[in-house]
Amino acid sequence: MLQRKDSITVLKGIGKQRAADLQKLGIVTIGDLLSYYPYRYEDRSHLKPLREMQEGDTETVLGIIIQAQDIYPRRGLKLLRVSIRCADGNAVLVWFNQNHLKSKLQPGLQIVATGKVGKGHIRQISVTDFELLEDEADLQNFQRIVPVYRGTEKNSSKTIRRMIEQVMEQGLPEEADYLPEEHLQEYHLLPYWQAVQQIHFPEDWQQLNRARHRLVLDEFLVLILGMQLHSLIEKKQGIAHGKNEQLAAQFFRQLPFALTNAQKKVILEVKKDMEQPMAMKRLVQGDVGSGKTMIAVYALLKAVSGGYQAVLMAPTEILAEQHYLNLKRMLEPLGIVPELLTGSLSKKEREGVYQRISDGTCAIAIGTHALIQKQVEFANLGAVVIDEQHRFGVRQRLALENKGRAPDVLVMTATPIPRSLALTLYGDMDLSIIDELPPGRQGIKTYCIGESKRQGLYQFLEKQIAAGYQVYVVCPLVEESEKMDLENATQLADHLAVNIYPHYTVGLLYGKMKPKEKAEIMEEFRSGALQILVSTTVIEVGVDVPNANVMVIENAERFGLAQLHQLRGRVGRGTSQAHCFLVAEPKTEEGKRRMQVMVKSNDGFVIAEEDLLLRGAGEVLGTRQHGLPDLKIADLVHDVKILEQSKQLAAQISQIGLDAPQYAGLRERAEDVYRAKMAMQS
Question: 364 and 507 share a domain?
Fold first, then answer.
C-alpha cells in the first residue's frame, strides 16, 4: 500500500531524472501528486460532430493522421498543417511555429486535439492541446471525462494522468476522513478520498462539481484555521493603555473638519483594542483619501498619553517626510514635536535622533526602513503604526514590533483588498474598513482618450492651470526601452516645458533621483512654485497636494487597475472637481476592460474586485511575503460562497476546540499553514 509521504519514485517509470523534472511542478511525494489537480477537463465520451462545431468555439476532435506539412504564409511565420480523418469527415489541425512536432505526427497515428474552431468548409482547429493515442489505456479515456494537467516537456499531461492512475490502482491505506461525519452530513460533503478520486477521474459533471466543492472547502477551512492558530499563538500579553483621552480630544477639537462616522467607528475599535491587556494587531483598510491618518494619529496619541513612545513607518522618504510635516504641524500645539528618521539624514543628524529615541525624549518617531536598523533602540515603545502595509514584508513589520515589548500594532493600506483576499492575507489581524469619504469630496471625473485628442487635453490643462490648479503627469518609464515604444518622463517634461507650456514651470520627479532632490521638487510642487509635475510612479503612494486637481497618466494601458486607482487618488483632495485623463490605446481585451472600469468607478473596492477577476489572487498582492501557501484549487473570485461556508464551519470547530480528538488530522493540516507563516517570518 502506498503512503502519502512516499516519494513518487516508488511509482513505475519514475526515475531520478523524471522525479527532478516533476519537482519543478511541486510534485515530490504521492500526496503532492494527488493534490496536483487538473486545470481543465475534456468530455471525450460525447465528441461533437464536425458539422455542429461553431467558429470561435473551443472543441475536441478525434481522428487518424493523414498528412503533416509545413506552410509559410508570410516571412517569419511557419504553420504546421495536419490533415486528419474523423468519423464524420476530414478536419485540419494547425500549430504555429512548432518545428519539433512534425516528426511526432506520423500518418496512421490516432490523435485527439483541442483548440479554437476556425473558418472554412473543412473544419480547421488551432490546436492548444493534443495527445497521441498509443494503446488501449489511451482509448479507454474516451469512455469518460478526461483530466488535463499542466505538464512539462518531459512530463506531459498524459504522463501525470497515468501516474495518478497508478496510485488509484494501488490504493492508499484506509484513512479516516479528517472531517467528522456530522460535518460531512451537515454540509452535504463527499468523503475526502472519494472527492480525490472524483476530481481526477469524475464519473460525471455532477460528481466532479461535488468533489471540487469538498476540496475547495477543505482548502479554505485549513487556511482559516491555520491563520487562527497563528493568531492565537502569536497573541501576546501587551500593554493595557489607560483611558486618558485628553490629548486625543484636544487634537480633534483643533481640526477644521469633523470626523466621518466611519472614522469614529474605527477609532472606537482601536480604543477598545489598546485598552485591552493583549497586544493589538489591527489592519485599517481605507480607500485613497478616506482619512486613515486620523486613525494613525489617535493610536500614536493614545500611547503617548500613557507615557509610552510611538512610531510610524512609511515605505518611501517622500511619504515619511509628508507624514512628518503634517504631524509636526498638527501636534506642536499639543506640545509634541515628532522626530524624522530616514536614510538621507547626515550621520550627525541620525545619531541625534538615535539618542533622543533611546533616552525617551522623542515621543513620536516617523521614518522609513531606517527605523528598523539595530542602532534604533526605543526607551519604551507602546504603539507601532505602519503605513501602506503591502509595501513591507512580514519580516520588516516584525523587526519594528520587536523594538518594544509587545507594542500595539496598527497597519494601514489605501490599496482596497477584496474581503475574501484580506481574510487570507491578514487572517492574523483584526480588520477595520473606512468605507466613507470626508464630506465635500467629489468623485474624480475620469476619461480615457487616445493620441488624437492630445491637443484638446493640452487646452484643458491650460484652462485648469490658469484657474490656479496644478497638474500631475505620470509616465511608466524613465529611460528609453527598445522593447516598449513609450515616451519617457524626461523627454515629456522637456517637451511640455519648451513646446507646450513655456509660460509655466514644469518639474520632473523620478525614482533614481537623490532623496534630497526628490524632497526639494515635492516641496516646490506643494508650495505652488511648479504648475506641472511630470513623474514616474514614485508619486503613487501618499503624496498629498490638495491644489493638484488634474492627473494625466500616459500609456495608461501599461498599468494595473490597483496602480491606476492609487495614482488617480493623488488628486481630488480638496472640494473642487478633480479630473483624471488616461491616455491609452489598449490593444487587448483586458486592457480595454481596465480602462472601462476606471472610467465607470471611483470605488476602490469595486476596482479591487475587478482587479482580482482580471489578474487572480496570486498577483494582486503577492502572497509569498505573507507566508501563505498558494491555493491549489480554490478561487477567491468565484468561490466566495464556499469561503463563507468554510468560515461558518471554522467557527463551529473553534467553539469545540481544534485540540479535540476528532480534529487531530485537521489540526495537523492547519499547523502546516502556521509553520509556513512562521518560516516566512524567521
Answer: no
Q: In this structure, are 395 and 533 located in the same domain?
A: no
Give burial (CB, 10 Å; 0-12/13-18/19+) of 601.
middle
C-alpha 108/C-alpha 669 separation (Å) is 50
**Region 186-204: what's the mean pLDDT?**
93
Expressed in percent and rounded to 5, the helix, strand and coil fractions of the chain are 45, 20, 35
Q: Verify that 25 and 72 share a domain, yes or no.
A: no
CA distance 552 to 446: 10
For 109-162, strand residue ranges (E) read 110-117, 123-133, 145-148
pLDDT band at 637 (very low <50, low <70, confident <90, very high): low
Residues 281-310, buried b or exposed e (16+ Cβ, 10 A)? bbbbbbbbbbbbbbbbbbbbbbbbbbebbb
Q: Strand order of the sheet with strand 381-386?
A: 339-341, 364-367, 309-313, 381-386, 408-413, 281-286, 430-434
More confident position, 85 or 634: 85
Report percent pLDDT > 70 for the chain.
Answer: 88
When pLDDT is cut at 50, 70 and 90, the band that residue 307 belongs to is: very high
Do 377 and 257 share a structural domain?
Answer: yes
Whether residue 674 lies inside any domain: the answer is no
Question: Is residue 537 within 8 Å of 567, Cβ to Cβ?
Answer: yes
Domain boundary among 601, 634, 659: 601
Q: Indicate the helix (H) or strand (E) that contains 341.
A: strand 339-341
pLDDT, tens digit, 9 for 90 and up, residues 348-386: 999 999 999 999 999 999 999 999 999 999 999 999 999
The pLDDT of 542-561, averaged and rounded, is 85
Report the amino acid identity of residue 217: L
Domain that holds residue 94: 46-143
The percent of residues above 90 in pLDDT, for the chain, comes to: 46
Whether the pLDDT of residue 477 is over 70: the answer is no
Name the band, by pLDDT with cuts 50, 70 and 90, for residue 130: confident
Residues 3 and 79 in one domain: no
Q: What is the pLDDT of residue 174?
A: 64
Q: What pLDDT score was predicted for residue 556?
A: 92
- H helix count then E strand count, the chain: 23, 20
Q: What is the mean pLDDT of residues 108-119?
A: 90
For residue range 500-514, what is the model confidence (pLDDT) as tens digits? 999 999 999 887 777
Q: Taking a C-beta distance cutoff of 8 angstroms, is the pair 541, 391 a contact?
A: yes
User: Do 493 and 376 belong to one domain?
Assistant: no
534 three-class SS: strand
**Number of domains making up the chain:** 4
* Domain final position from 396, 413, 430: 413
Shared domain check, 254 and 122: no
Q: List Cβ neighbours of 147 (8 Å cut-off, separation of 6 or more).
A: 38, 41, 157, 161, 164, 200, 201
In a domain, 389, yes or no: yes
CATH no. for residue 393? 3.40.50.300
Q: How confident is the model at residue 485 (pLDDT cuts 50, 70, 90)?
A: very low
**pTM for the predicted model, two decimal places:** 0.62
Residue 306 domain flag: yes
Residue 152 lies in a domain: no
Note every long-range contact of 212-219, with CB atoms under 8 Å and residues 24 or more positions apart, other chains counting: 212/633, 213/189, 213/642, 214/189, 214/190, 215/37, 215/633, 216/633, 216/634, 216/635, 216/639, 216/642, 217/187, 217/189, 217/642, 217/645, 217/646, 217/649, 218/179, 218/192, 219/631, 219/632, 219/633, 219/634
> What is the C-alpha separation between 6 and 282, in angstroms, rounded?
42
Do 61 and 31 belong together in one domain? no
